[in-house]
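Researcher: Structure prediction, please.
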Amino acid sequence: MLRWLPYPLLRASGVFALGVYVGFETNLPQKLELLWVMLFGVYFWLTLKTSKVDFRTLNPWLSALGLSAVFLAGSVRSQFEHHKRELRVGSAEFYEARVLEPSEQHSRYQRTVLALQWVWLKGRAYPVNDRIQWYQASQKVRKLSYGDRIIIKGTPKAIGKPANPKEFDYAKYMSRQNIFWQHWVTESDIIKISSYRGVSIDQLRHVLKARLQRAINKYLKPGAPQEITGAMLLGDRRGVSDDLEDSFARSGTMHILAVSGLHLGILYWLLLQLLGCWRNHFILKWFFILISLLALWSFALITGLAASTQRSAIMFSILLLGNTLSKESSSVNSLGASAIIILWVEPYQLYSVGFQLSYSALAGILYLQPLIARWCQVQNRILKYFWELISVSLAAQVAVLPLTVYYFHQFPVYFLLSNLLLIPLAFAIIVMGIVFFISTLLPSMVFLFAVPLSHMTRIAGFIVERIGDLPGSTVHGLEINAGELAVFYGLLASFVVFCQTRTRQSWLFFLGLLTVIVIARGYEKIQINQRQMIVVYHIPGHTAVDFIDQNIYQAVMDDELISDTSTVRYKINNFRRHLKLIHPTEQALPSTSTRTFDVWMFNGKRVLLIKAPTSKWINGNIKLKSHIVIVSNNSVKNIDLIKRWLITDLLLIDGSNDPLIARKLAEQAVEEGINVHNCWTQGAKIINL
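Model: Predicted structure follows.
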């Protein structure tokens, strides 16, 4: 049974990660942290000098001091990494930048990441240290290579904050990659001033990866063979079709398609089989170490150095050195060491979904798999292999389940079946893929390996598609918040501790967390039963309104937005899922519709949507009383029309209006003392009734 105490690096990695998180989220003063370390050290020294304590009494103090130092190291490291946005960039007339990575080609545009070096503002040049992503329309693209230095005419725009509740915060996501700006450019805006003439690791990586991708496209059949091989062996999922990627997700095998520790583990096993005999030779063992490290890190570099790949490369490197040099080497401590190294080099990896999933899965395998394996004692070698495979898959899936629900809101029901079939096949694909790449050096031999590789990948695609199409293959619409995520992991941890210690305290802690979940769900149910609200979303160029009664909503959207499912999913559905809303009922809201306006009655409130210009609303001089008025499609350009014909408690200007017209109308409303909300400047509006 795996214990906690013998693995100091595992403990240290958790405390270091907590320090990184606190450093990012609280921005504690660095001087205060250093002062606290000094005071704690002085206090500890005085305690040691004035008290007679034995080692057993002193040990908790040493542990507390060491873990406090690790915590503060993580906090200080994250603050050094935190990058402030260069405000001058937002006013630049020209700027100079260097291409950081090859452009990503999409259907309608091309995306490139640049490192800003200089900006020109009012005739003066200012040095800057920032990153920018910019886009070119696919019809006419300026070809750029890694390291090219260019000058761009124009002013970048800051990446906007989310305007709707629970909308994905793309600006925050990009800021964790130190990218704060974006810019749409044309070919005429770009002046190339120099090309990169040196040789860098990044450049070699991109060149080698492009050469291997050409080999895949040349020798393997189109479709699943090219897509799966490129994803599993080169870490490039951009060529994978949406349908195939969705099948992997629904079957619970995305960790096979995306490069992870599984892939490096297979490569490590292959190296042991081929060169493992060298480990016992005094001289050859150094060649074994060199070749193995080169192979592991070359694979990690080519596939993009994702968090799971970094973690596995570091862990296998530590194991390789420890085992080959005949020293004790623990996989658990190696796991902790890899986490500390990754977070020290790149603290923002803590927020990476891949990083979180990777370490959660490994923690599940280390702590839960031994408990699951004890459920059934199998003697037959073949059955034992499959039972170990099942127990590992189940442990990993249980460990990542809270994160899967939190980020992706779904659960693959048949994950055990898919992993049972695909993991052995993935092993064969990776080994055959490596041999295939080596055989490209001898074109006359390449087809001997390209044909079986094509068949293997085609079978893998067929399996995930069939499993993904099974009835009820995926449970959708699951939702937990950050607090519930922490409670669920607390439940898992307390369960593991109880299984190891069988103590009353761990069992009571487990029951206490269960009670917290029950109380939270009950309180949430009460809130849902009392919920009455109207939500006006901010969707540029569109109108979108939700009328919410308990857990049922009625949606009002223009026809173009209804057909744009990606925009609805990205900007609206997260909030609906957060509120645990179900699909609209067939009964529509009571309404009155004309060519120019719609009127609804909801919970005793009259809501008027003005959707086309008009000179008046009703005959005579009687004003129409409407509790909420929504202006859309530039239907009202002057506040006089509202003053003359309407009495309202709230005037809403939605995203379908021109932003300049919306700003002018909002300013006029403020001058007239009308309560106004401009979605262009204030985002979506939630009205609780």
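Model: The chain has five domains: 8-81, 90-198, 205-354+413-476, 482-528, 532-688.
Researcher: Thanks, that helps.
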